Amino acid sequence: MSRDTILNSIRRGLKRGPLPADQKAMLDSRLMAHPTHIIPARSRLPRPQQVALFIANLEKEFATAARVPDADSVPAAVADYLAAQNLPARFAMAPHPMLAAMPWDRFPMLSFEARRGQGSDQASLQHGFAGIAETGTLMLPSAPERPTSLNLLPDAAMVVLRASDIVGAYEEAWAKLRATNQDALTGGFMPRNVMLVTGPSRSADIEQTLELGAHGPRNLHVIIVDDDPAAIPDALA
């Protein structure tokens, strides 16, 4: 069912005809303008502090983070994390070109399959589209190379995120998505699904007792690739 069919059905139910031309022009202009709303001052920081704020907020929400100097260092970071968590050295990996190009052959003890997530997966490796510093949130839009099931089914979720993809505020993450994503069917920027992930899955619905892994991964680990020289603090430079 098309968007126009749905909207026309709603108008008929409300006993309304088509929008007058001036109102339609006003709404179209509003949708095209993408005005920026109020952006919290806490995210308006120099790049090193912005990345540090992202990590601090991430860890505040029960997630963990590791910084590596380049993409070639990611396999070692994955091996270290799985060993530290006493997990098997195998995982499901998003079929993303950035992840596929990493030197996995240097770590023959690691075993992975590039595919969607399955209920039996204990660990996954996902590609992070953006990180939002103001809340320590990951933006994970669905795509063939970024299966949503990898965000939900495994018990331990690992995400590779480039420092250059960490932004200050939500508005900047949405602007990045609009600029880099276009749906072939509709011409719009929205994919089928966009997940905003802040820490591992958790719930306190029952007797206000916090339970991790309630609706998804029990553990979330973000591997940050320091590809942005402006974001590297002096201590790591």
UniProtKB/TrEMBL annotation:
Residues 115-225 form the LUD domain. Transmembrane segments: none annotated. Coiled coil: none annotated. It comes from the Bacteria. Gene3D superfamilies: NagB/RpiA/CoA transferase-like (3.40.50.10420). It holds the Pfam family LUD_dom. This is Lactate utilization protein C.
